[in-house]
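Can you give me the bound-state structure? Components:
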Amino acid sequence: MHLTREEEAMLAGEEGRATQKAMQILVALGKIYDAERMVRVSSVQVSGVSYKNLGDAGLEFLSELAKDGRARVKTTLNPAGMSLTDWKSQGIERGFAEKQLQVIDAHGKLGLEISCTCTPYLAGNEPKFGQHIAWGESSAVAFANSVIGARTNREGGPSALAASLTGRTPLYGLHIEENRAPTMAVDVAARLRSPEDFSAMGYFVGREIKDGIPYFRGIKRAGLEDLKTLSAALASSGGVAMFHVEGLTPESGLKPENIEALTFTKKELAETDSLLNDDGVPDFVSVGCPHCSLAELATLAKLLSGRRVEREFWVCCSREVKRQGDEAGYSRAIEESGAKFALDTCMVVAPVEELGYRVVATNSAKACHYLRNAGLKVRFMPLEECVAEATRGG
Ligand code: F3S
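Here's the bound-state model for the whole set.
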């Protein structure tokens, strides 16, 4: 693998131990994937921030890097396992909170922005078309590649950190144009009426296509919220890191050639809805997977205005989008209903199962997937029904 003089110096330890370790990780990765060289990245997004996933080994690794490592490019963080300020009211145990704060502290020492969101593209980390980036959060990776046209592989925690400390990543996979072509066409015959329908479709297609690149045909309109939740669902049931929507996404000119097609009709939509619904009455309701946009806060404010929630209701979003919601007056209407903003975290990376809840209602197929893996029962429903469920009896 070709390294520049500067990269050789990093590898030789001339720029400190953390940078050396980072370059070792990237060179090893590059060798595995047969990368010819490194490419500079314009931004990094680090996932695996929750202490629930990192554990003590992860915390130790971070603390070691933080001794002399520093981010060289804009680097933002995925959600943590709790709100960094309101963890007590979330019912988080002190022991977990202390460890989580140590994880955040180490990231801060490394010079990372403590943004704690899975929608960095709504909170100031906004790559441009064609830029190389190194992002870790799977839903954001799919969104960045597909909707923005930036180029990233799905980075693990260590490789994303390594990219941040060196400003580079090995040139392979989705950084190379020829690897971004579709591998399967999806003819959409179902009428997609809401972001939740896009979420269900993503869940179905992800299961079918695994880590391929779907090319959706027959979708006339798709808004940011539709594409955000589609990205998340495709990357949860499968390992999809990129998709195209004919006529809508920026690289949909890379047309499918001689590839298989699958069809998504109202039958598959109904089957997926039912697959994502367990029995049971929800005792916890959460929306914002991926983290809410401002438009979603506007909808929630309208739906919740003048109503009271009767069960725990989390609205997950970034501090930046919450700030915009404050300015627009949406946050107040949401909080006056008794719903809680879950900032810095989400219903999946927080230890919800340890807080005593059993059945979660949510409008995200991705959240259903992971909550079920954590032993909870799930109910998948549109945003409006989540609000109805949360306020039922009130
Ligand atoms: Fe984001 Fe948590 Fe969903 S990190 S994509 S809200 S599982």
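A couple of observations. The first strand starts at residue 38 and ends at 40. DSSP finds 14 helices and 14 strands in the chain.
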